[in-house]
Design brief:
Layout: H1 8-26, H2 29-47, H3 54-61, H4 65-100, H5 107-116, H6 121-130, E1 132-137, H7 147-165, H8 170-189, H9 200-234, E2 246-247, H10 261-289, H11 301-313, H12 315-324, H13 329-342, H14 355-371, H15 375-392, E3 398-404, H16 405-417, H17 428-440, H18 448-452, H19 459-478, E4 483-489, H20 494-507, E5 510-511, E6 515-516, E7 519-524, H21 527-531, H22 533-541, H23 544-552, E8 556-562, H24 563-570, H25 572-592, E9 596-602, H26 614-619, E10 629-634, H27 637-643, H28 646-669, H29 677-699, H30 703-710, H31 713-718, H32 739-748, H33 759-768, H34 773-782, H35 784-798, H36 802-809, H37 814-839, H38 848-873, H39 879-896
Parallel strand pairs: 1-2, 1-10, 2-3, 3-4, 4-7, 7-8, 8-9, 9-10
Antiparallel strand pairs: 5-6
Helix pairs in contact: 1-2, 1-4, 1-8, 2-4, 2-38, 3-38, 4-7, 4-38, 4-39, 5-9, 5-28, 6-28, 7-8, 9-10, 9-15, 9-28, 10-13, 10-15, 10-19, 11-12, 11-13, 12-13, 14-15, 16-19, 16-20, 17-20, 22-25, 24-25, 25-29, 29-33, 33-37, 34-35, 38-39
Length: 900
Amino acid sequence: MRLHDRDVRQDVRELGALLGDVLADQTSAEAFELVESVRTDSIDYRRGDADSRDLLRSELADLPPERAGVVARAFATYFELINLAEERERVRAVREGSQAGTLADSVAEAAEVLADEDADEAEIQQVLDDVLVEPTFTAHPTEARRKTVKAKLRSVAQALETLDERRLTDREEAAVERDLEAEVTSLWQTPQVRDRRPEVTDEALNVQWYLENTLFDVVGEVYDELERELGDEFGEVSVPKLFEFRSWAGSDRDGNPFVTPEVTAETLDRQREVVVARYRDECKRLSGVLSQSDRAIAVGDGLRERIEADRERLPKVADEAEERYPDEPYRQKLKLMRERLDRIGDVRPGEYEDADELLADVDAIAESLRENGAEVVAENDVDPFRRRVETFGLSLASLDLRDHQQNHTEAVGEALAREGIDYAEMDEDERVETLTEAILQDDAIIDVEAAADADDLGETASRVLTLFARTADWQDEYGTQAIDTYCISMTEEPSHVLEVLFLADQAGVVDLPGYSGLDVVPLLETESALSGARRIMGTLFENDAYAAVVEARKGTQEIMLGYSDSNKENGFLAANWSLYRNQKRLAEICDDHDVRLRLFHGRGGSISRGGGPMNDALLALPNETITGEVKFTEQGEAIAEKYANPKIAERNLEQMLNAQLRARHEAIREPIEEVPDEWAEAMETAADSAREAYRGLLETEGFVSYFEQATPIEVIEELNLGSRPASRSGERTVEDLRAIPWVFSWTQARAILPGWYSLAEGLDAYLDAGGDVETLSAMYDEWPFFRTTLDNAALALARTDLEIAAEYAQLAPEDLREEFFPRIEDEYDRAVELVGEITGREGLLRRDWLEESLERRNPYVDPLNLLQVKLLAQSHRIPEEDRTLRLTVKGIAAGMKNTG
């Protein structure tokens, strides 16, 4: 059966030709010929038909500013279009694999694997009851594209889908191609670079778009597929809620002064409006389907009782419903449901108090249909609605609050000082004791709302106290589920967690014993915090106040791990090993205190920030940590790549679910992952040496200066990518610089050392200490952690191009260049060699399609890099050249499919 009429080569070829036509029409034939010459010269060098890039370099060197801008725009736009072609190819692969029954990492495969492992019905039910996957969307500034540009690209993607999947007449095909030409023309005429920095509300709207327009629609499909596959393999099993979406957009205050309480309130209100409107649409759609008459069916006691309850609640509306839909009970009920949805947030009574009430109404309709022999109608039309309500509640996505621990310490210190308590001068033990006593006593020590408005409080303290006062209001207005998590950045001490608990208690968000409206989540991201995890968490679990909170939160403790800063501090290999070891340690600590662990993985889009295939990452986690519930961040353009296209969004959800179901089953059968001592010792030796080599590079005098001059960091800091500043204090140090611009800068320069530097140094240390490659190969074949770590490093190595990086190195003074670039080059060459020896592969990558993608992209990224280097080398740039420079950053990000 033929599912598609095109392939990726045709899409690339035709989109490239269309862009060329638009370029010629919108600029000039000369400009088109220039771009073509640059393109062919770059391809010739990559193919080996030219001995050097001298011709390409000379073409770019003499360009007047206007022509340089055209070249940058042409190649940047090309990548935006080619990314859509590759997205379409991913959809083809998913559809064809699904049709053939060969799709890896699907829920069908998960069911087959569990059946092959002789799982019985009880085990499957336990796995399902345990699993909850929580993607958490952040607003970190890594999305390089404007919202307007993304909207136009979606239109192009839809046109490609129509050409590929529909049988069209010649006239219809011509019409689609004309639409495509018009959209690409409009794209060319649309500015690629933002004139202003996006506001926090823009970022929240961006996250909301994916939730509303993609995930809301596809999540039911995943459940439907899972129920069908599990039913085929295991018979009747009950599938509970398996997904919950969360967001930081509009609520993450760490380092972002623009996230005010007003922004958070606006985000909560808008998200509720969106999801309620979607539910209202669902009720209206169902009203068109469920036209059954009570003369032909028996309504049933459950539905009849709910209709009567609504009649008491909304008598006038009930009369109107009965008059409009006589003898049609489902339609009467759906009209009443629409009215109750309309009244959410209204002054009129009768609204749904929470999602459970709405869910009960949906369930009553489904149960009545099944009682009347309309199982297929319930499955096809009502069950997807139920899954949406179950997943998105009345909040669309629950918000996580986050702030830096220093701000909480400052706020508590100032608030208590007003009561005559010198918190600032206390040591850690005294702080823990004081906070504990204050939390456990019946009367509040401070009036949070009044203190927030006090004239003698500093700006930071006032802002923190206001937030806690408003949190209590938000939970009253929107429900606890809408905003029920508080994450503490840079947690280093038990008091940092108790400070948040104290403020929540004083604001009435926590009322012990018995009630806590917040999960208080420490973010462990430094080596000292990770190595001190037993001291931090053990102290908390043994603390009377905090133990009561854990009990109130159903015995579960969420702990967040920071991949980004851990990598920036320790280097790729050492950070990965530290995170792995400390995950096992955290699981052990929680087990010792009879606490259920939920890990929150603070992963970024790039390899060095914890990126890489999510299903591989979930399967590589230590068994001890796989309690079923897992949470992880989704950031930047990774969100667009995963969730912009409905088919790919559904595929990503399936892959996550596949991995978590299999991993949880494995963890139930083998709760402890036994790692041979020889392997653990190999990693200890390698990680220690790798950390030393990485720190040695960063701490060498002149390295920061080299980084500043051999990467476009200064340009990146000025880009209007996100609402949050690029550094924490405005200083230029590696420690102070945020992980995103750190990685973004190296990615632009094609020297992606955060993803591999010191890997070879570490592995060589193990080999020099008497280890052997055969052991490393066995580790790669049999240990998911090591295999995933090495594969991710290989991906970063494959996307590195040191020949291009050498062009950037020329921007640095000779002494710095000679000091640092050979070290980077030697480490890269040895890492490539070791990866080949360990994996047994000739190339770096184990996925052919990825290698093809890199080969297709590299000749088109090169001119952007060379043009960027040319502009960076200029001591003075006119405004038009600055715009072109920023455009090269956007183009390279699109070509590399990654920023930070």
